[in-house]
Design a protein that fits this description.
Strand content: 25-35%
Structural class: alpha+beta
CATH architecture of the largest domain: Sandwich
CATH superfamily of the largest domain: Immunoglobulins
CATH topology of the largest domain: Immunoglobulin-like
Helix content: 10-25%
Shape: elongated
Largest sheet: 5 strands, mixed
Number of strands: 11
Order of helices and strands: EEEEEEEEEEEH
Radius of gyration: 31 Å
């Protein structure tokens, strides 16, 4: 007699999904640049096991800082691999500086999960150049103030520039200002 045993090959239905960002959180994109750095998420079930073939959608904001995916759209959809991971790699940042969110939603059968990834579009290089010229302005003001101090010293001696004071009597004055390290900030304070 031959006995056949048929096991049900249907996997159990997923009841709860969990989604976690594993790579790319907090990325800073240069204005107008294409990013090659992936944003990768991992989708697991309620027991922590990876969920393959779950649909994962990534949504960019409609306005403000952000950009577009390679398709030219603000939404991209992919599926998780056998390890429960899904990634987007092609992203074109716009030129609006600041922080933005990528909304991420995973779904499989009736279960859904969502999270957000915070990303940044950096200040444009023209903003950095303006900061540099601002620093140069302070140097010019400092030099002008130093020249004014030298003129006042000469005026106090009767305006005679023919005989410089002896070197032993002149003491250098402490600088009226100092220039510290530059500060770089991304986004709004």
């Amino acid at each position: 007699m031959l006995w056949l045993s048929l096991a049900s090959g249907a996997p159990a239905q997923v009841a709860i999904l969990q989604i976690q960002i594993v790579e790319g959180e907090g990325a800073v994109h240069l204005p107008g640049s294409r990013s090659g750095r992936p944003l990768t998420v991992e989708v697991t079930d309620e027991t922590g096991k990876p969920v393959p073939e779950a649909a994962v959608s990534f949504h960019l904001p409609e306005d403000g800082p952000g950009g577009m995916f390679a398709s030219g759209l603000r939404t991209d959809v992919t599926t998780t691999d056998s390890h429960g991971r899904a990634a987007i790699r092609a992203f074109q940042a716009n030129r609006t500086p600041g922080r933005f969110q990528i909304r991420i939603v995973a779904s499989k059968e009736q279960a859904r999960a969502g999270t957000v990834s915070f990303q940044y579009v950096a200040e444009s290089k023209t903003g950095a150049a303006a900061g540099t010229s601002h620093g140069k302005r302070w140097i010019v003001i400092g030099l002008a103030a130093g020249g004014g101090a030298a003129a006042a010293l000469l005026a106090g001696r009767g305006g005679s520039a023919s005989a410089p004071p002896p070197a032993a009597q002149v003491t250098p004055a402490a600088p009226a200002f100092s220039i510290g390290n530059p500060a770089i900030s991304v986004g709004k304070p």
